[in-house]
């Protein structure tokens, strides 16, 4: 009898212990993830369930187009009531091979797929039935898993395409490892920058139309090497060092630099492995004045470092054509756990900033809260005056 009581007590102890563990796990799962935002700013969820959401582009009517790398889709997002959250979405294309690089120009959407660039004509008026994209260029190099691409139309009207190297470190055959500019009407192209490794973020400064781009350094040189790069193009045809020199002074042991090769060094070094995937100059007016026309960078975050680094959006202050300061605006790193991996950035029509997240397939909207508060107060005062 006493023995049975002890066995039953032991069983209850085990059951209670298991229940306690399960309860604690549910509590941990229910705890919100910590996202840190600079004072004065707010962050909301603009859209979700987009797969590996990567590069973004805005249409003339405010439609946000999002490209993916693995999912193979181009999605169009519409906020028809302007409440800061998507209420309509359309699939422009699906089943494509890594349609990450997208651009918008004169009403048309451009997508890089395999060796081609295709155009979806008058896309914002055809979101329900976009049809097939029409080929406008067919001389991109063959796509590889390691070669990442990005596209933007420049101030000169040409389509600029960044074509990453197809390797961790190698002497890539052109146009791999370069940025080219394409005249869509004639099909002629020009190499404007060479010696790059992996560029998915580039933009032109609103102050002087200079081209800036972020380049990710090679892997497997340790936690602290080599630094990632922020570069500024001074003249057409500059070589930015890959694979011979990484960042300012890290010499590549596997390849010797040609004697007569002149290399342009980075304008600014980022910490190693923060992985800058997006670079964008803020063109809105609702952020405080110190943010106007400044460079924002999406640090996608480390994948093979002993401790996590990156996973944030930073502002790089530019003075007299040099980056002078780097400060965090949004951090998605909760302790050592990444809540999101920011990939691309874009100024929204209302002056907020869109942030794509290729970890959870979200688009976030970064806004300045004091502006919203001020507008609410002004509206209340106007209504009071009318009474």
Give a description of the structure.
The chain is mainly beta. It has one domain (44-379): Neuraminidase (6 Propeller), CATH 2.120.10. It contains 2 helices and 30 strands. It has helices at 2-30, 369-386, and strands spanning 36-37, 41-47, 53-58, 64-68, 74-78, 88-93, 102-105, 108-113, 116-120, 134-137, 149-153, 159-163, 178-182, 189-194, 201-204, 211-215, 228-232, 238-239, 245-246, 250-251, 268-270, 276-281, 295-299, 312-319, 322-331, 333-334, 337-338, 342-347, 353-357, 362-368. The strands form 8 sheets. It has a 5-stranded antiparallel β-sheet, with no helix packed on it. The longest helix is centred in the N-terminal third of the chain and has 29 residues, at 2-30. The chain is globular.
| Rounded average pLDDT | 88
Give the total of beta strands: 30
* Proportion of residues in helical segments: 10-25%
Q: Using only CA atoms, what is the Rg?
A: 24 Å
SS class: mainly beta
CATH architecture: 6 Propeller
Number of domains: 1
The end-to-end distance, rounded to whole angstroms, is 83 Å
- The outline comes out as globular
Looking across the biggest beta sheet, what order are the strands in?
A: 1-25-24-23-22
Please describe the biggest sheet, giving its number of strands, its sense, and whether it closes into a barrel. 5 strands, antiparallel
Low-confidence stretches: 1-31, 377-387
Number of helices: 2
CATH class: Mainly Beta
Enter the CATH topology name: Neuraminidase
Classified in CATH, the superfamily is TolB, C-terminal domain
Q: Which percent range describes the beta-strand content?
A: 35-45%
